[in-house]
């Protein structure tokens, strides 16, 4: 079939023979006509002749369409933390699949990889987060947590506590309820969301919302909006607060250091559960194993996905504290929840190998070290650029806020697509960065080298210059 030969052709003809080009075109047409893409404008996809075909990866490089080499400063979607093309990961998958391709974790059955991975996660996780439920995506893990939140309050005899508080700019997933938690209105409009039972409070976005306050004063103010919302709803109606320690999807919104201690105190005072969504920040991205380690948070739940397997297999985890497990899992009666592929042996084996690599190669420490290099080089090269309002982040996570006027912090209308134009210009320089709202996001693999960071920074300098020139 054209499909089978296409993957062979794509692999063997990096130089790109006519045959390989023809097969690629067939594939692009098949994709254009039949493949529904995530977060994609499908009419534009039709008009532009179809999607880019990613074919291989090596280290920090993504290779597509035969021989187009792109330095992936986004690690896919912030997940390929150990880098592309790790043979030992492929071997771990092959070995696990040969031993046991599948068995479920329903009704008191496990497999060696799931058992070992659950213990490994529990040992690494902050505080009393000791119980691991496996899912296939961050969305499913969050959705699972939300069901446990409801179960917890029912078991406590407070079934009215069902309301979940989330934040503006949040991203927690694409299922019905997690979409409702997202603080991004365009994701709601087409679907008649959010569902009832969700409220959003201000995000700690000092650069946009801090006004005349210094970051620390603003951090406390933003945290107090949680208290105000609980008072407005009535504490006896509120079940939980969900938040990403750092909001990455919306441009690496860094909470001032005063923010998290205040949030933790409010959750304690009001007796509501705290869910730390560490889907992006988990497993070293910030230079700490978890962002909670940096902020001194011990949440009641933690969501993990992306970096758990470095994206090599779909796997996610809902990590549950002793306090919640005691009320929901240890009171007798079955836990009425689960997915066919929860604790999948191959996915768990790959995740274990991924964690081995992170430990053996000191990749968390490396994320801290290379992160400092990235931030210093970004600040030197573009910190004073007229289009750059702020460079922020932690570890190998950087957000660059673009502005019209640095002094007033005003920005160009979103419809102008400034960030997309800059990201596209960087792509033309061979570097993948991500445009979101008024910001660019950089989130590279932990194995990125200093020379590669130089390439990323140089591409951004060139892209900003080009677009700035066009604006004059
Ligand atoms: N939570 C956060 C913070 C995320 O960034 C994402 C995805 O980007 C999710 C949840 C959803 O994860 P998934 O796409 O695996 O469902």
From TrEMBL:
Pfam families xrefs: Aminotran_3
Keywords, in A-Z order: Aminotransferase, Pyridoxal phosphate, Transferase
Cofactor: pyridoxal 5'-phosphate
SUPFAM superfamilies per the UniProt record, alphabetical: PLP-dependent transferases
The family this protein is said to belong to: Belongs to the class-III pyridoxal-phosphate-dependent aminotransferase family.
GO molecular function: transaminase activity
Disordered: annotated span: 1-19
Entry superkingdom: Bacteria
UniProt biased composition (Polar residues): 1-15
Signal peptide bounds: none
Protein name: Aspartate aminotransferase family protein
Keyword Ribosomal protein: no
Keyword presence, Transferase: yes
Annotated PROSITE patterns: AA_TRANSFER_CLASS_3
Gene3D superfamilies noted in UniProt: Aspartate Aminotransferase, domain 1, Type I PLP-dependent aspartate aminotransferase-like (Major domain)
């Amino acid at each position: 079939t054209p499909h089978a030969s296409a993957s062979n052709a794509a692999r063997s003809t990096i130089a790109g023979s006519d045959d390989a080009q023809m097969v690629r075109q067939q594939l692009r047409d098949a994709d254009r006509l039949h493949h529904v893409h995530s977060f994609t404008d499908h009419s534009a996809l039709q008009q532009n002749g179809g999607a880019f075909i990613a074919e291989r990866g090596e280290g920090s490089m993504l290779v597509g369409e035969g021989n187009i080499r792109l330095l992936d400063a986004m690690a896919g979607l912030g997940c390929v933390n150990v880098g592309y093309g790790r043979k030992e990961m492929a071997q771990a998958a092959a070995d696990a699949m040969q031993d046991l391709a599948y068995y479920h974790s329903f009704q008191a059955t496990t497999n060696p990889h799931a058992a070992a991975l659950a213990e490994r996660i529990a040992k690494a996780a902050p505080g009393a987060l000791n119980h691991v439920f496996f899912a296939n995506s961050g969305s499913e893990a969050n959705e699972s947590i939300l069901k446990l939140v409801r179960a917890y309050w029912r078991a406590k005899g407070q079934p009215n506590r069902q309301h979940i508080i989330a934040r503006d700019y949040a991203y927690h997933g694409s299922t019905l309820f997690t979409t409702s938690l997202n603080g991004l209105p365009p994701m709601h409009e087409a679907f008649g969301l959010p569902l009832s039972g969700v409220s959003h409070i201000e995000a700690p976005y000092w650069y946009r919302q801090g006004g005349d306050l210094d970051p620390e004063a603003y951090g406390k103010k933003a945290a107090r909006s949680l208290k105000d919302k609980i008072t407005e709803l009535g504490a006896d109606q509120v079940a939980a607060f969900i938040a990403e320690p750092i909001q990455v999807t919306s441009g690496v919104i860094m909470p001032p250091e005063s923010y998290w201690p205040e949030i933790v105190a409010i959750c304690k005072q009001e007796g509501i559960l705290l869910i730390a969504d560490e889907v992006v920040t988990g497993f070293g991205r910030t230079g700490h194993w978890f962002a909670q380690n940096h902020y001194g948070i011990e949440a009641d739940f933690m969501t993990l996905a992306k970096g758990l397997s470095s994206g090599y297999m779909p796997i996610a985890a809902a990590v549950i504290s002793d306090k919640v497990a005691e009320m929901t899992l240890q009171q007798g009666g079955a836990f009425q929840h689960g997915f066919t592929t929860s604790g999948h042996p191959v996915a768990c084996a790959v995740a274990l190998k991924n964690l081995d690599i992170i430990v053996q190669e000191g990749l968390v420490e490396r994320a801290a070290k290379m992160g400092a290099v990235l931030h210093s080089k970004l600040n030197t090269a573009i910190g004073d650029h007229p289009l750059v309002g702020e460079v922020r982040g932690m570890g190998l996570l950087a957000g660059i806020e673009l502005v019209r006027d640095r002094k007033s912090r005003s920005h160009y209308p979103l419809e102008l697509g400034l960030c997309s134009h800059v990201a596209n210009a960087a792509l033309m320089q061979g570097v993948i960065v991500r445009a979101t709202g008024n910001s660019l996001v950089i989130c590279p693999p932990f194995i990125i080298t200093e020379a590669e960071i130089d390439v990323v920074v140089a591409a951004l300098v060139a892209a900003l210059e080009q677009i700035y020139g066009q604006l004059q």
